[in-house]
Amino acid sequence: MTPTEILSYPANALDEAQRRKYFERGFLTIPNAIPMEWVKRLRELSDEFLDASRRFDASDDVFDLGPNHTTSTPHVRRLKALVDRHPEFWAFASRSSLTDIAADLLGPNVKFHSSKLNYKWPGSGEVVQWHQDITAWPHTNYSLVTLGVHLDEVTYDEGPLSCVPGSQEGPLYVHRDNQGRWTGSIAEADLAGAGLERAEDMLGGPGTVIAINCRVLHASRANLTKRVRALPLFVFASADAFAWMPPPSPTRKTGQIVRGTPAKVAHLDPRPCPVPPNWAEEGYSSISAAQKK
Ligand SMILES: O=C(O)CCC(=O)C(=O)O
Predict the structure, then answer these.
(1) Nearest CA to ligand 1 atom 1
(2) What is the span of the domain harbouring residue 145?
(3) CA of 264 to the centre of ligand 1 (A)
(4) Mean pLDDT of all residues in the chain?
(5) Residue 171: how many other CB atoms lie within 10 Å
Protein backbone atom coordinates (compact mmCIF):
# COMPACT_ATOMS: atom_id res chain seq x y z
CA MET A 1 0.00 0.00 0.00
CA THR A 2 1.16 3.54 -0.58
CA PRO A 3 1.21 6.14 2.24
CA THR A 4 -1.66 8.02 0.56
CA GLU A 5 -3.83 4.89 0.51
CA ILE A 6 -2.94 4.05 4.12
CA LEU A 7 -3.75 7.57 5.32
CA SER A 8 -7.18 7.36 3.68
CA TYR A 9 -8.22 4.83 6.36
CA PRO A 10 -9.15 6.03 9.86
CA ALA A 11 -6.50 5.59 12.57
CA ASN A 12 -6.82 3.22 15.55
CA ALA A 13 -4.09 4.36 17.93
CA LEU A 14 -2.09 7.22 16.40
CA ASP A 15 -3.15 10.73 15.50
CA GLU A 16 -2.87 12.19 12.00
CA ALA A 17 0.26 14.19 12.86
CA GLN A 18 2.05 11.05 14.07
CA ARG A 19 1.13 9.07 10.95
CA ARG A 20 2.22 11.88 8.64
CA LYS A 21 5.48 12.29 10.55
CA TYR A 22 6.20 8.54 10.13
CA PHE A 23 5.67 8.72 6.37
CA GLU A 24 7.72 11.92 5.98
CA ARG A 25 10.69 10.87 8.10
CA GLY A 26 10.52 7.06 7.93
CA PHE A 27 10.39 6.49 11.68
CA LEU A 28 8.45 7.55 14.76
CA THR A 29 8.76 7.40 18.54
CA ILE A 30 5.40 6.87 20.29
CA PRO A 31 5.52 7.50 24.06
CA ASN A 32 3.14 5.66 26.45
CA ALA A 33 1.86 3.47 23.62
CA ILE A 34 1.77 0.15 25.51
CA PRO A 35 -0.11 -0.34 28.82
CA MET A 36 2.21 -0.99 31.77
CA GLU A 37 0.60 -4.43 32.44
CA TRP A 38 1.93 -5.60 29.08
CA VAL A 39 5.34 -4.00 29.63
CA LYS A 40 5.64 -5.74 33.00
CA ARG A 41 4.61 -9.10 31.52
CA LEU A 42 7.06 -8.80 28.61
CA ARG A 43 9.83 -7.98 31.09
CA GLU A 44 8.93 -11.03 33.24
CA LEU A 45 8.97 -13.32 30.21
CA SER A 46 12.28 -11.89 29.07
CA ASP A 47 13.78 -12.52 32.53
CA GLU A 48 12.51 -16.12 32.49
CA PHE A 49 14.22 -16.79 29.15
CA LEU A 50 17.47 -15.16 30.27
CA ASP A 51 17.42 -17.44 33.27
CA ALA A 52 16.71 -20.48 31.09
CA SER A 53 19.66 -19.56 28.83
CA ARG A 54 22.04 -20.55 31.67
CA ARG A 55 21.47 -24.20 30.76
CA PHE A 56 22.94 -23.71 27.27
CA ASP A 57 26.49 -23.15 26.12
CA ALA A 58 26.02 -22.69 22.35
CA SER A 59 23.67 -20.73 20.12
CA ASP A 60 20.70 -22.64 18.74
CA ASP A 61 17.25 -21.96 17.24
CA VAL A 62 16.18 -20.13 20.41
CA PHE A 63 19.21 -18.22 21.71
CA ASP A 64 21.94 -16.29 19.93
CA LEU A 65 24.63 -16.36 22.64
CA GLY A 66 27.46 -13.86 22.94
CA PRO A 67 31.11 -14.74 23.65
CA ASN A 68 30.84 -13.96 27.39
CA HIS A 69 27.98 -16.39 28.05
CA THR A 70 28.41 -18.71 31.05
CA THR A 71 25.96 -20.59 33.26
CA SER A 72 26.48 -18.03 36.01
CA THR A 73 26.40 -14.93 33.78
CA PRO A 74 24.06 -15.04 30.78
CA HIS A 75 25.09 -13.15 27.66
CA VAL A 76 22.20 -13.55 25.24
CA ARG A 77 22.35 -11.33 22.17
CA ARG A 78 18.99 -12.38 20.84
CA LEU A 79 15.97 -14.49 21.70
CA LYS A 80 14.96 -15.71 18.26
CA ALA A 81 11.49 -16.11 16.71
CA LEU A 82 9.93 -14.51 19.77
CA VAL A 83 6.29 -15.33 18.96
CA ASP A 84 7.18 -19.05 18.95
CA ARG A 85 8.73 -18.85 22.40
CA HIS A 86 5.55 -18.16 24.41
CA PRO A 87 1.83 -17.71 23.54
CA GLU A 88 1.76 -14.32 25.24
CA PHE A 89 4.39 -12.95 22.87
CA TRP A 90 2.05 -13.93 20.03
CA ALA A 91 -0.99 -12.49 21.82
CA PHE A 92 0.92 -9.24 22.17
CA ALA A 93 1.91 -9.17 18.48
CA SER A 94 -1.50 -10.12 17.13
CA ARG A 95 -4.07 -8.66 19.54
CA SER A 96 -2.81 -5.58 21.37
CA SER A 97 -2.26 -1.86 20.94
CA LEU A 98 0.89 -2.86 19.02
CA THR A 99 -1.29 -4.38 16.28
CA ASP A 100 -3.37 -1.17 16.21
CA ILE A 101 -0.21 0.84 15.58
CA ALA A 102 0.85 -1.57 12.82
CA ALA A 103 -2.53 -1.05 11.11
CA ASP A 104 -2.19 2.75 11.36
CA LEU A 105 1.14 2.57 9.50
CA LEU A 106 0.37 -0.26 7.05
CA GLY A 107 -3.34 -0.06 6.29
CA PRO A 108 -6.28 -2.23 7.37
CA ASN A 109 -4.83 -5.51 6.09
CA VAL A 110 -1.74 -6.48 8.08
CA LYS A 111 0.51 -9.53 7.79
CA PHE A 112 2.90 -10.67 10.51
CA HIS A 113 6.49 -11.13 9.36
CA SER A 114 8.88 -11.89 12.25
CA SER A 115 9.96 -11.02 15.77
CA LYS A 116 12.94 -11.22 18.09
CA LEU A 117 14.13 -9.86 21.40
CA ASN A 118 17.48 -8.10 21.14
CA TYR A 119 19.69 -7.62 24.20
CA LYS A 120 22.53 -5.21 24.59
CA TRP A 121 24.79 -6.03 27.52
CA PRO A 122 26.74 -3.56 29.60
CA GLY A 123 30.47 -3.72 29.08
CA SER A 124 30.19 -5.85 25.94
CA GLY A 125 30.83 -2.88 23.64
CA GLU A 126 28.29 -4.35 21.21
CA VAL A 127 27.09 -2.00 18.51
CA VAL A 128 24.75 -2.60 15.60
CA GLN A 129 26.25 -1.03 12.49
CA TRP A 130 24.39 1.02 9.90
CA HIS A 131 21.99 -1.07 7.87
CA GLN A 132 18.58 -1.18 6.15
CA ASP A 133 16.35 -4.08 7.22
CA ILE A 134 14.64 -4.72 3.89
CA THR A 135 17.93 -5.78 2.28
CA ALA A 136 17.83 -8.97 4.42
CA TRP A 137 14.16 -9.75 3.71
CA PRO A 138 13.14 -8.15 0.38
CA HIS A 139 9.43 -7.82 -0.51
CA THR A 140 7.46 -6.72 -3.56
CA ASN A 141 7.05 -3.29 -1.92
CA TYR A 142 8.36 -1.30 1.03
CA SER A 143 5.28 -1.12 3.22
CA LEU A 144 6.83 -2.96 6.16
CA VAL A 145 7.49 -1.61 9.61
CA THR A 146 9.50 -2.80 12.60
CA LEU A 147 7.88 -1.95 15.95
CA GLY A 148 10.14 -2.04 19.01
CA VAL A 149 8.92 -1.77 22.60
CA HIS A 150 10.94 -0.11 25.36
CA LEU A 151 10.71 -2.25 28.49
CA ASP A 152 12.71 0.29 30.53
CA GLU A 153 13.80 3.89 30.15
CA VAL A 154 16.07 4.17 27.10
CA THR A 155 18.41 7.15 27.17
CA TYR A 156 21.47 8.06 25.09
CA ASP A 157 23.56 5.72 27.29
CA GLU A 158 21.55 2.50 26.77
CA GLY A 159 22.57 2.24 23.10
CA PRO A 160 19.28 3.37 21.54
CA LEU A 161 18.41 2.91 17.90
CA SER A 162 19.40 5.88 15.80
CA CYS A 163 17.71 6.63 12.44
CA VAL A 164 18.46 8.95 9.51
CA PRO A 165 15.34 11.02 8.74
CA GLY A 166 14.14 10.75 5.15
CA SER A 167 16.49 7.86 4.34
CA GLN A 168 13.49 5.69 3.36
CA GLU A 169 13.35 7.83 0.19
CA GLY A 170 17.07 7.35 -0.57
CA PRO A 171 18.89 4.42 -2.15
CA LEU A 172 19.09 0.89 -0.77
CA TYR A 173 22.74 0.01 -0.24
CA VAL A 174 24.41 -3.34 -0.86
CA HIS A 175 25.21 -4.99 2.49
CA ARG A 176 28.25 -6.95 1.28
CA ASP A 177 32.04 -6.66 1.37
CA ASN A 178 34.39 -6.32 -1.63
CA GLN A 179 34.36 -10.10 -2.08
CA GLY A 180 30.56 -10.06 -2.29
CA ARG A 181 30.09 -11.69 1.13
CA TRP A 182 27.05 -10.68 3.16
CA THR A 183 28.01 -8.36 6.06
CA GLY A 184 24.59 -7.17 7.25
CA SER A 185 25.97 -3.62 7.23
CA ILE A 186 26.70 -0.80 4.80
CA ALA A 187 30.30 -0.25 3.62
CA GLU A 188 32.17 2.84 4.92
CA ALA A 189 32.45 4.28 1.40
CA ASP A 190 28.66 4.24 0.94
CA LEU A 191 28.06 5.82 4.35
CA ALA A 192 30.05 8.94 3.47
CA GLY A 193 27.14 10.73 1.80
CA ALA A 194 24.29 9.00 3.62
CA GLY A 195 23.45 11.84 6.05
CA LEU A 196 24.52 10.07 9.26
CA GLU A 197 25.18 13.45 10.86
CA ARG A 198 21.39 14.01 10.84
CA ALA A 199 20.61 10.71 12.64
CA GLU A 200 18.26 10.92 15.62
CA ASP A 201 18.15 8.67 18.67
CA MET A 202 14.90 6.92 19.55
CA LEU A 203 14.63 7.58 23.27
CA GLY A 204 11.78 7.16 25.72
CA GLY A 205 10.43 5.53 28.84
CA PRO A 206 8.91 2.08 29.35
CA GLY A 207 5.90 1.54 27.09
CA THR A 208 7.36 3.67 24.29
CA VAL A 209 7.00 2.13 20.83
CA ILE A 210 9.54 2.87 18.13
CA ALA A 211 8.43 2.42 14.51
CA ILE A 212 10.99 2.11 11.72
CA ASN A 213 10.18 1.72 8.03
CA CYS A 214 12.07 -1.15 6.39
CA ARG A 215 14.17 1.16 4.12
CA VAL A 216 15.39 3.47 6.89
CA LEU A 217 19.11 3.67 7.56
CA HIS A 218 19.66 2.86 11.25
CA ALA A 219 22.20 1.63 13.79
CA SER A 220 22.71 1.48 17.55
CA ARG A 221 25.66 2.34 19.78
CA ALA A 222 27.14 0.46 22.73
CA ASN A 223 25.31 0.23 26.05
CA LEU A 224 27.27 2.43 28.47
CA THR A 225 25.10 1.66 31.51
CA LYS A 226 25.29 -1.18 34.03
CA ARG A 227 21.87 -2.59 32.97
CA VAL A 228 21.06 -4.90 30.08
CA ARG A 229 18.93 -3.21 27.40
CA ALA A 230 16.16 -5.59 26.28
CA LEU A 231 14.30 -4.62 23.10
CA PRO A 232 11.52 -6.81 21.64
CA LEU A 233 11.09 -6.10 17.92
CA PHE A 234 8.11 -7.12 15.76
CA VAL A 235 7.97 -6.78 11.97
CA PHE A 236 4.67 -6.36 10.11
CA ALA A 237 3.86 -5.92 6.41
CA SER A 238 0.93 -4.58 4.46
CA ALA A 239 -0.91 -7.70 3.29
CA ASP A 240 -0.09 -6.82 -0.34
CA ALA A 241 3.70 -7.03 0.27
CA PHE A 242 5.07 -10.51 -0.56
CA ALA A 243 8.56 -11.79 0.20
CA TRP A 244 10.53 -12.77 -2.92
CA MET A 245 13.35 -14.56 -1.07
CA PRO A 246 13.19 -17.00 1.89
CA PRO A 247 13.01 -15.10 5.21
CA PRO A 248 16.15 -15.09 7.41
CA SER A 249 14.32 -15.79 10.68
CA PRO A 250 10.93 -17.37 9.96
CA THR A 251 8.51 -18.06 12.80
CA ARG A 252 5.50 -20.38 12.88
CA LYS A 253 3.33 -17.28 12.49
CA THR A 254 5.20 -15.70 9.55
CA GLY A 255 2.72 -14.77 6.82
CA GLN A 256 -0.30 -14.88 9.13
CA ILE A 257 -2.87 -12.07 8.68
CA VAL A 258 -3.33 -10.26 12.02
CA ARG A 259 -5.74 -7.57 10.76
CA GLY A 260 -8.20 -7.53 7.87
CA THR A 261 -7.96 -9.95 4.98
CA PRO A 262 -5.25 -11.47 2.74
CA ALA A 263 -4.39 -9.54 -0.44
CA LYS A 264 -5.69 -10.83 -3.75
CA VAL A 265 -3.28 -8.62 -5.72
CA ALA A 266 0.37 -7.93 -4.88
CA HIS A 267 1.57 -4.31 -4.89
CA LEU A 268 4.81 -4.06 -6.91
CA ASP A 269 7.10 -1.11 -6.13
CA PRO A 270 9.48 -0.47 -9.07
CA ARG A 271 12.39 0.73 -6.90
CA PRO A 272 15.30 -1.78 -7.07
CA CYS A 273 16.41 -3.86 -4.09
CA PRO A 274 19.71 -5.75 -3.62
CA VAL A 275 19.43 -9.55 -3.45
CA PRO A 276 20.39 -11.13 -0.09
CA PRO A 277 21.87 -14.61 0.31
CA ASN A 278 19.37 -17.46 0.07
CA TRP A 279 18.82 -17.92 3.82
CA ALA A 280 17.05 -21.24 3.31
CA GLU A 281 20.37 -22.60 1.98
CA GLU A 282 22.91 -20.56 3.94
CA GLY A 283 21.15 -20.23 7.32
CA TYR A 284 20.94 -17.06 9.41
CA SER A 285 21.70 -16.48 13.08
CA SER A 286 21.33 -12.76 13.84
CA ILE A 287 22.43 -9.35 12.65
CA SER A 288 25.07 -9.23 15.40
CA ALA A 289 26.50 -12.56 14.26
CA ALA A 290 26.50 -11.44 10.58
CA GLN A 291 28.11 -8.08 11.38
CA LYS A 292 30.74 -9.73 13.66
CA LYS A 293 31.88 -11.96 10.78
O1 LIG B 1 18.97 -4.00 18.88
C2 LIG B 1 19.44 -3.01 18.32
O3 LIG B 1 20.02 -2.14 18.95
C4 LIG B 1 19.33 -2.80 16.84
C5 LIG B 1 18.57 -3.86 16.17
C6 LIG B 1 18.42 -3.67 14.71
O7 LIG B 1 18.63 -2.62 14.15
C8 LIG B 1 17.96 -4.82 13.92
O9 LIG B 1 17.85 -5.93 14.48
O10 LIG B 1 17.69 -4.61 12.71
Answers:
(1) 118
(2) 3-10+71-292
(3) 32
(4) 95
(5) 15
